[in-house]
Amino acid sequence: MKNKLVLTKLSFFGILFVLCSSINAQTEFDGLFMSKNIFCVGTTAETSSFNRYWESEFNRDNANLGTVQYKALSVMGNYGLSDRLNVIFSIPYIHSNTTAGNLASQNGIQDASLWVKFQALDKKFLNGNIQIIGLGGYSFPASNYNPDFMPLSIGRGSHNITARFLLDYEENNWYMTVSGAYIYRSNITLDRNTYYTDRMIYSNQVEIPNQYHYNTRFGYRNDQFIADIYHEYTNTLGGFDIPKNGMPFPSNEMDFQRLGFYAKIETPVSGLSFLVNGYTVFRGKNMGQLSGIQFGAFYIFGSTSN
Amino acid sequence: MTRQNKLYIFSFLTIIFLSSCSKTIQEDNLSYPTLNPTRLDTNTNDWKFILLTKTGDINCPAPMDVNSNLYPIEIKKIKDIQANLSSSDQNLINYWGSGSILRWNEIMRELVAKNNLPPYQNPDGSYPIPNSNNPFAYPTFPFATPPYAARAYAYLSASQYDALIVAYHYKKIYRKKFPFETDSQIRSSFKNNYISSFPCEDAVIAGVSLEIMKLLFPADFETINTKVLEHKKARMAGGSCTESDWEASMQLGKEVASKFISRAKTDGAGTAGGNASLWKNLEQTAVSRGETPWISQESPPRPPMLPLFGKVQPFLFPTSAIAANLRPSPPPSVHSDQFKKELEEILQFSGNLTRDQERIANFWADGIRTYTPPGHWNHIASEDYVQMNLSEPRWSRNMALLNMALMDAAIVAWDAKYYYFNPRPMQMDTRIKTCLGLPNFPAFISGHSTFSGAAAQILGYLNPTKKDHYNEMAKEASDSRLYGCIHYRSDCEVGLVVGKKIGNYAIERAKSDGAE
Q1: A and B: number of Cβ contacts within 8 A
Q2: Is B299–A63 a contact, with Cβ atoms under 8 angstroms apart?
Q3: Count of CB atoms within 10 A of residue A291's CB?
Q4: Per-residue confidence (pLDDT) for residue B21, from 0 to 100
Q5: Are residues B203 and B330 in the same domain?
């Protein structure tokens, strides 16, 4: 009966900003799980931009780009195979453009991703509770976009396999979550058959360096509310630097750190929640000094009682 | 199975999977076969010079005789190298075994790509100009633009060709045995050893290439010199050449290079950048004709690229032929219906490309940090010649004909660009956005189209079995600039026609150079 009601709502709002929600829904970076047979699905809208970037480590603007802007609309979902094993998916549509200069805007479906999230340990520890969680993820380009048009390309074009190890500690609703991931990124194929990195390469294949990714968050959560601040560090393991006044390339050594905040709140409508997520990159190399904000709405299918 | 075990197995499988994903890239140019010419071209000494007038202008003393007391020392050096071959030495033998014209051409392409970066602006919005007298200071010298690159490839190939004619003249005089012929313990790794080990054509080519590259890419001297040493080691390790013969042969190459360097210093390229009053004049001339002058769309506005390159001395025809035969009729007036129609066509492409059109634009983009369109045609020609088992002299002749045509195409295209000084589509309609970098010089005629027309014409003559293929590629390269929204159809179509005319000059030369 409840499901029927949800479906009616769905058809009413269309596929856009509504779907199910739960304070328990989550992501690659948190210590939260959907209960068994609960399916949460949602949509997020994100806008981000930069008007300065690091050319190697030289921070500059570029009047031929003005501000580089990205807008993303994503659908994502999380299903509880069991209370300790979730699958998560997401698929974003991205539009990019500049506010100055000659470069054409790009848009399209970017990379679809699928995650398996597994709770390996969940026990009392000190005065709180500790969890150890393992995640495995796979993402791939869901459309034939051109990765060789940076910074406007909507993605890198690689197939990525991620292994993430996550530690979560909660005490009196305050929590800290630390995770680290290794991201294997496949080679990509260009439309051209040579390119120059720090030397000439005669191939249409580009080796995309792998990455380490670290995320640390600290916040408060209860059944109605989650809020945290986070720090994120992406370290690219190899690649080359953008030369002075050169163009970025998918195999650049792109390193960056960002700070962000995240909040999610249950609404009076049962199962419906909203999220907001903001961030700014404060250190980087071969990267845009990106700041962005994301809003989302989520809804839950199935009973939340368990 | 316990949960813990499952986790272990999951982790284990993940590690196995990740470690099995090799990311090593197969680089096309590293698997070329060893050069094994089907036709030896032993009459190369009879071919017609490009710049030299007679062989006697280049001095070449007799090499050390194989019966000399010192010769065994030379042989021992080769044996020592062969006895201590590392795997990287073996890689060098394989690499250089594919041909030295090929490899030095590739090295030039790499130098071009590395140096193909526009200087970053000064704080006041002006742009610094690379200075050949101070090549290491930013902006490093040179900015290897397409005309600069076309000229670099032409000087390299033409001087290599003349040097091999001289080398073959002296080969027939000295007829020196190869080290592996004088000592059976020496292994030969190369298949292109003929007539005489002296002068060693590899060393001649290395010598000429070193000097030309030092002139054109002085800041990369270290890299170039390292390549010379690797080339020498490969050739000695391959049992083809003694050290003294290598050095003497290099000297011959350097002497030939000096003739070309004298030409390069006075061919007009050094002053092709013009100055502020010239730039202003170009604008006023276009206005006085009632047309809209080209304006840099970069921010801050960058001075136009090499406005006087059209005055550089061509290889295949006298400068007077440009105005008389090669400069095209004016492009459609910006006030004409034809112009509006062509502008509208580009507006339709803007933001509406199919993925295949985008692929074509990208494949032929040849923008910054690439070997430029002339380099692209060198790459295309090289891939074909690797399959054709040409002798080194024939490699050099074909590349010289191609690269003289490409340099002259640059001269003629740049002449038209600055004679007409017409605007790019984006200047006339700011709704037009490009999927390529916007070239900072006038539109008419398309450089890509002129280069490609010239290249396809001469390559099709040199290898008639692929004539249609080259023409299709040239058309695609030309169309790619429409898809990129940086050229009008007239720029591209007229550019192809003009390019073919330039290619015909190369064909005329080919018919009478004694190599047919």
Answers
A1: 113
A2: yes
A3: 17
A4: 62
A5: no
Write out pLDDT tens, residues B172-231: 999 999 999 999 999 999 988 889 999 999 999 999 999 999 999 999 999 999 999 999
Q: In chain A, where are the structural domains located?
A: 2-301
Q: pLDDT tens, A223-281? A: 899 999 999 999 999 999 999 999 999 999 999 999 999 999 999 998 999 999 999 99
Indicate yes or no: CB of A184 within 8 angstroms of CB of B371. Answer: no
**C-alpha closest to that of B15 among A146, A217, A161, A10:** A161
Residue among B109, B120, B378 with most chain A CBs within 10 A, to mutate: B120
Q: Which residue has the tokens 């009966």?
A: A1
Instruction: Indicate the residue among B235, B265, B295 that finishes a domain.
Output: B265
Of B265, B294, B319, which marks where a domain is finished? Answer: B265
Give the separation between CA B480 and CA B437, rounded to whole angstroms.
13
CB contact under 8 A, A136 and B14: yes
**Per-residue pLDDT at A19:** 30
Q: Per the domain annotation, does B275 fall within a domain? A: no
Q: How many CB atoms lie within 10 A of CB B127?
A: 17
The whole-angstrom separation of Cα B131 and Cα B141 is 6
* Among candidates A100, A163, A194 on the partner chain, residue whose Cβ is nearest the Cβ of B299: A100
Least confident of A15-19, A89-93, A174-178: A15-19
| Angstrom distances, CA of residue B317 to CA of A26, A51, B148 | 72, 50, 19
| pLDDT exceeds 70 at position A35 | yes
Which residues from B are below 8 Å from A53, CB to CB? none
Span A169-211, pLDDT tens digits = 999 999 999 999 999 999 999 999 999 999 999 999 999 999 9
B363 in any annotated domain: yes
Q: Hey, are the CB atoms on A246 and B117 less than 8 Å from each other?
A: yes
- A79 has which bridge partners? A39, A87
* CB neighbourhood size of A93 (10 A): 16
* CB spacing of B369 vs A64 below 8 angstroms: no
Q: Looking at the structure, tell me whether residues B306 and B408 fall in a common domain.
A: yes
Tokens 């080398």, located at residue: B167
pLDDT tens-digit readout, B338-351? 999 999 999 999 98
Looking at the fold, whether B302 and B389 belong to one and the same domain comes out as yes
Mutate to test the interface with A, among B7, B299, B378 (most CBs of A within 10 A): B299
**Token pair in block for residue B340:** 């509006």
User: Which amino acid, residue B291?
Assistant: E
List CB contacts (< 8 A) between A252 and chain B.
Answer: none
Q: Do B236 and B343 belong to one domain?
A: no
**Over the stretch A126-139, which tens digit does the pLDDT of each residue have?**
999 999 999 999 99
- Is residue A87 within 8 A of residue A116, CB to CB? The reply is yes
- Expressed as residue numbers, the domain containing B404 is 282-511
Higher-confidence position of B56 and A304: B56
CATH architecture of A2-301: Beta Barrel (2.40)
What's the total number of domains in chain B?
A: 2
CA angle B392, B398, B401 (to 5 degrees): 135
**Contact: B23, A186; criterion CB under 8 Å:** yes
B238 and B324 belong to one structural domain = no
Do residues B212 and B286 both lie within one domain?
no
Check B18 against A148: CB less than 8 A apart.
Answer: no
Predicted local confidence at residue B191, as pLDDT:
87
List chain B residues with pLDDT less than 70: 1-21
- Asked if B416 and B378 sit in the same domain, the reply is yes
